[in-house]
Amino acid sequence: MRTYDCDVVVVGGGSTGAGVVRDVAMRGYSAILVDRADLGQGTTGRYHGLLHSGGRYVVSDPHSATECAEENAIVTRIHASAVEATGGLFVSTPEDDLAFSDDFLAGCHKTGVPVEEISVAAALKREPRVNPGIRRAFLVEDGTVDGWQMVWGAARSAQEYGAQILTYHAVVGIEMTGSSVSAVRCIDRRSGEDVTISCRFVINAAGAWSHHIAEMAGCHDVEVVPGRGIMIAMNHRLVNTVINRCTYPADGDILVPVHTVAIIGTTDVRAEDPDELPIPADEVQQMLDCGEILIPGFRQ
Q1: The whole model's pTM is what?
Q2: How far, in Å, CA of 29 to CA of 11, rounded?
Q3: Closest by alpha carbon to 195, among 209, 206, 184, 182?
């Protein structure tokens, strides 16, 4: 059996866990991150890559909109190599309620989300493939993030501050002394070896699996509802700007350019098991239909 000792164990090697272990190490604590697979194997490696300006939430969730705007600026500053400042457009398509665009503009001003209304002609000049029937267009500070580059960059930075990164280490138990955590037990999935990490704190960054980790520490009231969403990556870059429908948040209302592809998404459905995620054909067709509204000819 292999043993370690540290101040803090971070469970989960996605963008949250990698960012947290970096933060902990920078504060001078000894830290170890464990993940049952490789880094970025959960949501971090399976999302559309959007760095939100906050615009999507200015009406539905104003607090989150402000947080998005603030975090956009922070991520762009501290991890510029993982970010492409594409900019974003919110457009009112012929399918959308034009009255919402007034609420959207007011919401941006109220929440501190930078926004500029531009003419339809200017929007179509910037993105010629966008639906020519759009009636209003707003420029925001959306960007795209390379999730892999982001999480590995944060992990390497954490290692420079003394943290250890243990991938393919599945947590199988958390030991308690009284009401305090005293150790995390893992199995090295490559060698089969038992691993015990003595520690003073555990930070649970396991995402859709975090309630399982919490239960190991006796915290049975941590309720997590796993969800899944369908996205489609087209095989070329249809746009160079993030294109959003100017409407109340719904399925398939964002098209994101990432490297050499463009990704449309997403559906949002409860998943009973985050390890078993189906890809229903009707949801694939739904995303293709949504793409046609933003970019006529999207299916081709």
Answers
A1: 0.93
A2: 16
A3: 184
